[in-house]
Design a protein that fits this description.
This protein is of the alpha/beta class and 366 residues long. The protein is built from 13 helices and 15 strands. It has 2 domains: 167 residues, Rossmann fold (3-Layer(aba) Sandwich), CATH 3.40.50; 173 residues, Rossmann fold. 33% of the residues lie in helices and 17% in strands. The strands form 2 sheets. The chain has an 8-stranded mixed sheet, with helices on both faces. A 7-stranded mixed sheet has the order 9-8-7-10-11-13-12, sandwiched between helices. Strand 12 and strand 13 form a beta hairpin.
């Protein structure tokens, strides 16, 4: 199959859908890969790196987008919607494989449905045991970055309270409150504990809390999540990390505007759930160019493509997980849906219809 790899155009998004290593595997299997020029440069991969492993480097986005299988990292932006229709030769017979996060993207959802493209979202590819194999690698990175960025913005020159999360002898460490104990929350806690912060994780899944106890022991305070426990903890936090996940849907609002108003001036909120709409009432998407804003003197960080800030690591990690699925799609096309239940679970839009149950529930009128 012919595979297109367009250059990502989201603000400061430096990742690329396929690394040269992945392209080599695909070309060795007899597939042709068309990479838009400079698509990999942000991750440290030159056009020549792609040529050496068998790719064809094309000079325009259109030449990459016209291929039957499209492999990206982030969702198409409005300026790319016109590429979704393809050309007369392949219209209605094309596959888009990327992160979509449609719950927060109604215009994109409508554009995908209108185009007739088969849209498979990394974040909803799901194994029979419930694991999300293509969301996990970026969740690990985003969780670790959430505390790294939070610590940065707690520094006074960057607008924060002037808190060193790890403290020093004679001065208490900072308090990190993590809302959600999944992959993001676990990795956020791992970094916060390593820095020496006081850490709380809130979750409603008792089995998950038990697992986290076996992982962290007494180094982390594990709290059953409820409005009362969150309302007691958030005002005392120096850094709040939003790490709630509801598959295919916007997460619940866990921190209200009033509760944000009760936080200490210069405290920081990093909402990793922003790509699905966020779990903090006062959050809205920002960018790597302009990552933060103030509400009630609390610094809000809402960048939806956090792993894009470490593209070399992120691209390689993502490709390790996506390549087996790209191979199946390249070899079987839409037939891979019938062959692999995990890929079938990832289908969001097919034949002009919104088919993923959770996403369909968000847009009941479509």
């Amino acid at each position: 199959m012919d595979i297109g790899v367009p250059k990502e155009i989201k603000n400061r998004e430096f990742r690329v859908g396929l690394s040269p290593q992945s392209v080599r595997v695909l070309c060795d299997r007899g597939h042709r890969v068309f990479v838009e020029t400079q698509a990999g440069v942000g991750s440290g991969f030159t056009d020549e790196d792609y040529r050496q492993v068998g790719a064809t480097v094309v000079e325009s986005a259109a030449a990459a987008w016209e291929q039957p299988l499209l492999v990206k990292v982030k969702e198409p932006l409005p300026s790319e919607y016109g590429f979704l229709d393809g050309n007369e030769g392949n219209r209605g017979d094309r596959i888009l494989f990327t992160y979509l996060h449609l719950a927060a993207e109604r215009p994109l959802t409508e554009a995908l449905m209108a185009s007739g493209i088969l849209a498979i979202a990394y974040e909803t590819v799901q194994l029979p045991d419930g694991r999300l194999p293509l969301l996990a690698p970026m969740s690990v990175i985003a969780g670790r970055l959430s505390v790294q960025f939070g610590a940065h913005f707690l520094e006074r020159p960057h607008g924060g309270r002037g808190i060193l999360l790890g403290g020093v002898p004679g001065v208490s460490p900072g308090q990190v409150t993590i809302l959600g104990g999944g992959v993001v929350g676990t990795e956020a806690a791992r970094i916060a504990v390593g820095m020496g912060a006081r850490v709380q994780i809130f979750d409603i899944n008792l089995d998950r809390l038990s697992y986290l106890e076996s992982l962290f022991g007494s180094r982390v305070e594990l709290v059953y999540s409820s409005p009362l426990t969150i309302e007691a903890a958030v005002p005392e936090a120096d850094l709040v990390v939003g790490a709630a996940l509801v598959l295919g849907r916007k997460p619940p609002t866990l921190v209200s505007e009033a509760l944000v108003g009760s936080m200490k001036p210069g405290s920081v909120i990093v909402d990793v759930a922003i790509d699905q709409g966020g779990c903090i009432e006062t959050i809205h998407p920002t960018s790597h160019t302009d990552p933060t804003y103030l509400v009630s003197d609390v610094l809000h960080y809402g960048v939806p493509n956090m792993p894009g800030s470490v593209p070399r690591t992120a691209t390689q990690s993502l490709n390790h997980s996506t390549l087996p699925y790209v191979l199946k799609l390249a070899e079987s096309g839409a037939g891979a849906i019938e062959q692999d239940a995990a890929i079938a679970a990832g289908v969001n839009v097919r034949d002009h219809q919104l088919v993923h149950p959770a996403v369909r529930e968000v847009f009941g009128d479509l």
